[in-house]
Task: inverse folding
């Protein structure tokens, strides 16, 4: 019986950590993917990574200690992929900032799956960022970090020694990165608004709303077209930095 528990533990602990990873990993964490598919993917990843696994703690899977250890592995996988989630949300924040500046803040799309409303431009950039992440094989690198994490942070080591404070500071990195990337478009829209403000001041009879709003929208779309040339390289840098954070998070 103990030997059967040891064999099951070789699959169960990697499976729990993979399930936590899929809760925050870009694209795989989407609610559009059924939970059964996520479970099967986590089981497949655990089976493929089985030859790379070190020795696992031998616990009876029906005991309270095994339940706590399973929850610990799910939480560890969840926290490990959090930098990648922050990296992806940079695109959504950029879309929200630019939408507000160009007068499209009212263009909101309801998301019945996630249960919220998001700026249409932010949703589009979120999809664009997901495709860029997959195109640069970010998911493969994340799975490599997942397999290596069992050697750098083995099962049973706990989560209280993890750099949770450094992980919380990455939220500031998210906001700062989004602002720096959207800054050219924000400055361009600010100049447009200042120009129309001066024109309205010089000619009071000038209908600023009839011409200003369409011109601001056109200028915003032009700024987004120029920003598209910058986004792939900048998002590649952000993804590389997020993957490095993910790897350093489970370093002892």
Result:
């Amino acid at each position: 019986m103990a030997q059967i528990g040891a064999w099951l533990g070789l699959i169960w602990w990697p499976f729990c950590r993979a399930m936590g990873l899929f809760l925050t990993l870009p694209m795989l964490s989407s609610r559009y993917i059924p939970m059964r598919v996520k479970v099967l993917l986590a089981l497949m990843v655990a089976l493929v990574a089985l030859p790379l696994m070190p020795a696992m703690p031998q616990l009876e899977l029906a005991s309270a200690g095994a339940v706590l250890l399973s929850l610990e592995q799910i939480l560890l996988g969840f926290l490990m992929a959090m930098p990648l989630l922050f990296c992806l949300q940079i695109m959504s924040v950029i879309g929200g900032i630019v939408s507000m500046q160009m007068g499209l803040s009212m263009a909101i799309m309801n998301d019945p799956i996630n249960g919220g409303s998001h700026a249409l431009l932010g949703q589009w950039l979120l999809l664009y960022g997901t495709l860029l992440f997959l195109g640069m094989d970010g998911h493969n690198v994340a799975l490599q970090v997942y397999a290596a994490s069992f050697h750098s942070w083995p099962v049973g080591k706990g989560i209280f020694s993890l750099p949770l404070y450094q992980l919380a500071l990455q939220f500031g990195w998210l906001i700062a990165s989004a602002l720096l990337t959207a800054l050219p478009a924000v400055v361009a829209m600010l100049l447009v608004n200042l120009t129309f403000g001066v024109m309205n001041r010089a000619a009071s009879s000038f209908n600023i709303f009839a011409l200003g709003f369409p011109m601001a929208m056109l200028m915003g779309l032009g700024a987004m077209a120029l920003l598209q040339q910058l986004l792939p390289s900048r998002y590649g840098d952000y993804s590389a930095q997020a993957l490095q954070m993910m790897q350093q998070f489970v370093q002892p």
